[in-house]
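Inputs:
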Amino acid sequence: MKFEEKLLKIDELVKLVNSNNESIEDQIKYYEEGLKLIEECRVFLANAEQKIIDISSKSANTD
Amino acid sequence: MATNPLTISELTDEIKSILENKFFSVYVTGEISNYKHHSSGHHYFSLKDENSQISCTIWRNTSVNFSLKNGMKVIVRGELSVYAVQGKYQIICTSILPEGTGDLYLAFEKLKSELSEKGYFAQERKRELPLLPMKIGIATSPTGAAVQDMFSTIERRFCPTEIYFRPTLVQGEAAALDIVKAISELNEYDLDVIIIGRGGGSMEDLWCFNMEIVADAIYNSKTPIISAVGHETDFTISDFVADVRAATPTAAAEICTPISKVEFETRLIATKENLFTQINANLSNLKKFLQSTGSEILYRRLTEKIHFHEQRLDDRQNQVEMSLKNKLEKFTQKLDSLKFSLESLHPLQPLEKGFALIRQKNKVLKPNKVPAVNSELEIVRKDDLIIAKVLGTKLKMFDNV
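Outputs:
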């Protein structure tokens, strides 16, 4: 899952945990899944480094 | 012939009328001096050459597309006006262009109105940028401050972003075509947004961003484009066509990183706390429910069960009682019948029918015992006792009866 998708999923899980229509068993499941995704996102941010891809070499070849 | 002198106002009115009718449209070139941009928004300056000068005013609602500076040579268009209060005449400028760029300005204005009519600048065409661009294309010069400003701004704000950099000519004759190519090449990657731009410069320097082929390339780009050309005050055709105009390249980089890494981290921690608080609240609500309402339900269920079993027990008891009673009745009947049988077997029973029992010396005279002659016998009947004496005995006493 991409970073952005994980963020959307976390939002969705928070809504489900806040909802009154879910069973407590499911909510605990959503809570744990949310924690897992949050941790993954934090690790991703902590390890992220800027990546610059110079595409000029490619354009030189195709010209 | 004596004439009355004019009042100052009458003279001024006459001058005003003559001057304003004669010079209602002027087109002059000169150098700016005594420039003042008043806090009201109006511009005041003088235009001069070697020998003369004239006051000029630009009202604040007149568009000025560049910064005015003393010493700058400009061409103005306007009308002459007499300011009666100070007895002064001045040019009220309706347009002002830097000298030498007059043709470019005309070309710019012409292309702008053409493209505007074609709908290139329509607000409804503008695409929203993704909330969190993860892949950003940049087309700008590899040298110069703009590219470094963008890289460092993006790195500082949100480093996980991937930057696809296409070094591009942004000045000179070949620039427009190179920008067009860069846009097309960057469109081959699946990017979230493309920034085209450069740092500040003269109008000629920025000119490639005013070319129709560049406008077409931006118009036809699949990927949303941010145009970031020059400074805050510079406007180019590409700014109008692009989905978003950024005042500067740095501003474009900021637009592409709406949420910084630090903000993300803070939000993630807040979300984690929110989740934790919520799940705890849910659990304690459930606990309360079980303690109050929940236990009531349990109690009710339990009571129902107890009642059910009690009823079953009652039923069973009834059954047992019923069957006992039946049995007892049967026993009673049996006993009655036994009693009857027993009574019928009672040895004294035949006496009721007239039979008698014979005893001798208080003992029942057994059938096989023959009493002696002259011995005494007791004949027991139902209600009395006869004492008799044996006269004699015969065998088979009933044979002849």
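Remarks. The mean pLDDT of chain B is 87. Chain B touches chain A at residues 131-132, 134, 151, 154-155, 159-167, 181-182, 185-186, 189, 261, 264-265, 268, 271-272, 274-276, 278-279, 282-283, 286 (CB under 8 Å).
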